[in-house]
């Protein structure tokens, strides 16, 4: 039961963080960039190990654990347990409760890309509409917009990163299976997760307010360098500097625990 609760907390934290990465307009329905299913050529001899961040390097203390549910049959147990953890109302308000594990893995994989499809997200979008206001003659992200992300940021900030990672290690096989099913046979999901965390931590912190342009229906960053950022990095800018720093701090805690050589307790 103990590991189950922390596993669900891990899923909730990942879902909360991922839920922040929502398109500028709900009407936008970007297409997912499908991963190539072609097998890459065999790499030449290299000193780099096939797995850069082996999750098994710090197994938690041994405890009696219930068997993991099959990936395709995990939604029912997840819905029931998440409701007992967060309550039925928050569960209904925040989460999309079908194919939860696959949604998390697919969204994590897409964050460094140019777009993340809203249909893949494990949680519902922030309430309200994206707010842009004029600062003199310049169109910029409205300061009130940052409040839309506050409930997600508070939930993410409150979770203990060490216990989350211990549970992540325990239930890693489901994450790995979902990642391979996505089209990455032989690839390692924890390597991708670490890569994505590092990518998000590298998001710049430009001076606020951030200036926008609206060449068509959707807003864009006026600065070409910001507009060229990934979907994940852009949303960190949209949520505001204070919120972004909280999210980055939690991601840094998770990364440190994932990279630690000490056994988790």
Brief account:
With about 260 residues, the chain is mainly α. The chain has helices at about 1-20, 75-85, 90-95, 100-110, 150-160, 160-170, 170-180, 190-200, 225, 230-240, 240-260, and strands spanning about 130-135, 140, 210-215, 220.
Task: Explain what this protein looks like in three dimensions.
46% of the residues lie in helices and 5% in strands. The chain is mainly alpha-helical and 265 residues long. The protein has a domain at 2-31 and 52-127 and 145-202 and 241-259. Strands 1-2-3-4 form a four-stranded antiparallel sheet. Strand 1 (132-135) and strand 2 form a beta hairpin. The longest helix is centred in the C-terminal third of the chain and has 19 residues, at 241-259. Residues 1-12, 19-38 and 42-48 have low confidence and may be disordered.
Indicate the proportion of strand residues.
Answer: under 5%
- Count of alpha/pi helices: 11
Order of helices and strands: HHHHEEHHHHEEHHH
Strand count: 4
The largest sheet, given as strand count, sense and whether it forms a barrel, is: 4 strands, antiparallel
Give the termini separation.
Answer: 16 Å
Mean pLDDT: 78
The amount of helix comes to 40-55%
Describe the strand arrangement of the main beta sheet, using strand numbers. 1-2-3-4
Overall shape: globular
Low-confidence stretches: 1-12, 19-38, 42-48
Derived structural class: mainly alpha
Question: For the CA atoms, what is the radius of gyration?
Answer: 19 Å
